[in-house]
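Problem: given the chain below (233 residues), write out its structure.
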Amino acid sequence: MRIVTDYLDHSAAVFPDKAAVVDQNRIVTFKALKEEALHIASYIIKHFGKWHAPVCFYLDKSACCISAMMGIAYSGNFYTPIDTKMPTARIEKILETLEKPLMITDRKHLGQVEQFIGDDDVFCLEDAMDEPYDEEKIQKITNQIIDTDVLYVLFTSGSTGNPKGVIIGHRSVIDYTDWVTNTFHFDENTILGNQAPFYFDNSILDIYSMLKTGATMYIIPQINFAFPIKCIR
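Solution.
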């Protein structure tokens, strides 16, 4: 694998109708996950023309976040998750560090996001899904991405005063994911329970192991953290 979107391309081809991500509201197959990501990528390319630029997403924790991550990656840019429960001061510091990035949100949170970033550099997920995607144009973009390009920037807790961005490239994630999946023998029969927030680096294990192997990732509702017996099927 050269870049992480190759994982999704492979799993969507081999396991198109298999559940990739399950949250409280829906089950998203690998085929649907890729299609959602392509809608987002195409929208970014068509309307903003960003390249190697930061793109944040401000969404409730759900399967939509994974679609956003992959869509941003397909567009040749890098992502930063912004948790909807983060304090305003922290969000403002992150956006300042990224120098006014493009922001993806949904209609539910649009008013909040416009307070942070204005209305020029933000778009709604629903609008991207309503437009057709141009897979040929996306392929031309991904052909230009190299494995040392930045995939994401996650921010530290800020215990020293300010959150600091940690920059991670495609190759680092691929090397780590290969090690994890080989060491723990993950495959398409594996079920992964995601508890870590998407802005926390431990979530990388769940997300990219799922994308690589065709495993299914369940996003565990926060209420079940205190009642793990509810997670038993």
